[in-house]
Amino acid sequence: MSQALLAGLSRTTEPHAMLRRFLALDAVVTGANGAAYVAASGPLGRLLGVDAGLLSGLGVFLVVFAAAVGALASRRRPPAAAVTAVVDANAVWAALSVVALLAWLEPTTAGAVWIPVQALTVAGFAVLQWTALRAR
Fold it and tell me: Where are the alpha helices (DSSP H) in the chain?
């Protein structure tokens, strides 16, 4: 991914600002997703064909993860090791989402669409964050 593309996506050429913005976006999207899973695990579980208890537990994890990523994004210079941990967690989440879809979940049509879409979104955050980390 080129520096120009990253700068365009983040609307800055300053590498630390790029990284912080990609982390902040991840925190907002992940936090909203987690909050929805917690607040509406029953209806969303039925819509997606995923157990409501599993969805609620994942939601709690996502809210906590989002808070940690948001705290990292608020730092002037996020530490490389912490950013790498976020990138790794995002990559694992994306991979496990696909494995779960193929191996043990029996989602509805909406779930069969949602699960890969959210996996691609999370993988996209990992790529953006890793690339911005390496650019600084």
Answer: 3-10, 15-39, 41-48, 52-73, 80-103, 109-135
Q: Please check whether residue 37 is in contact with residue 12, taking contact to mean a CB–CB distance below 8 angstroms.
A: no
- For the stretch 75-83, contacts whose Cβ atoms lie closer than 8 Å and that sit 24 or more positions apart, written own/partner, are 75/20, 76/16, 77/16, 78/16, 78/19, 78/20, 78/23, 80/133, 83/19, 83/23, 83/129, 83/133
Dist CA 28 CA 66 (whole Å): 7
Rounded to two decimals, what is the model's pTM? 0.88
Q: What is the pLDDT of residues 6-29, one digit of tens each?
A: 445 555 567 788 899 999 999 999
Q: How many domains does the chain have?
A: 1
DSSP codes joined into one string, 59-96: HHHHHHHHHHHHHHHTSSS--HHHHHHHHHHHHHHHHH
Q: How is residue 27 written in tokens?
A: 């925190």
Domain that includes residue 25, residue range: 3-135
